[in-house]
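Quick one: structure tokens for this chain, please?
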Amino acid sequence: MASDHGKKHRAGHVIKTVLAVIGGITVVLAVLLVALAYELNYAVRTVDTSTSPDGRFTLELQAVGEPLFFSPADARLVLRLGRYEVSHVDTSIADDGGQVRTTSWQVSWENSGAEVRLKGSEQSDELVTMGFDGSVSKGRAAADESLGGLPDAEANTPATPTDEDTTSSEVAQQEAEEIDAGYKAVYDAALKSQGYGYQVTYNAKGDEQVILCQDSEKVVILVYDRESANGACALFALESCPVEDYGSWSIEEAALLDEYAYVHETGEVIASGKTSWSDAGTQEFRDVTGE
């Protein structure tokens, strides 16, 4: 009896060992299959990057997964402003089963955004326009359409600037420097003493803005608004934006905390005391701005 019991015990142990080995192999195979499925369908890799002439924006060409046999390759275009994503668009490139590669696109940077031509041997070229304001449009080019001969991303040769272009560029640069000086003057005169930080960022249109503090509930931001009615001052708005549950925020939902006038001639900063755009502000503010 003892011998039979021992045999049964050993047989049970062998069965458990075999089942454990089979279970382990099954788990490993399942993990490998999941990893393979992810690589084929979802894995994202950056194939190429193009940078705007002013260095603010970057456009990434990404491959999503891998093409199966002779199927089109999934691709994604991502427009970024610094580390912030402005917009993205998903598409596919029919290129005889080939992967997305650097020769799959051409990029041309314009004043309002980037124009992209996506090329594949089994398709008409796809045209994608991605605006700095987040807008996206797609279309197909006719077989003989050149769209002005969009240059390759690797060989984008800028046109020779004219005297008028140079003058406009110099004026724009001076205006940008004056606005930047206004930001710093307002911060030093009115906000630094309140313990605020100073983080320069840019919105989707490429306009400068300064984040003063940010937490899970709100973002306090300083934004250049406009020139005053008499042209003597640059006006800056101090605003608080609520943060949504998923961490995003929009200046469209902002509440006004104050408005400041930066006097171009003297560098003086005048607070308005306004907490609503309908407020008139202090007499000193009205006198210096002509409003």
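The CA atoms of residues 50 and 77 lie 11 Å apart.
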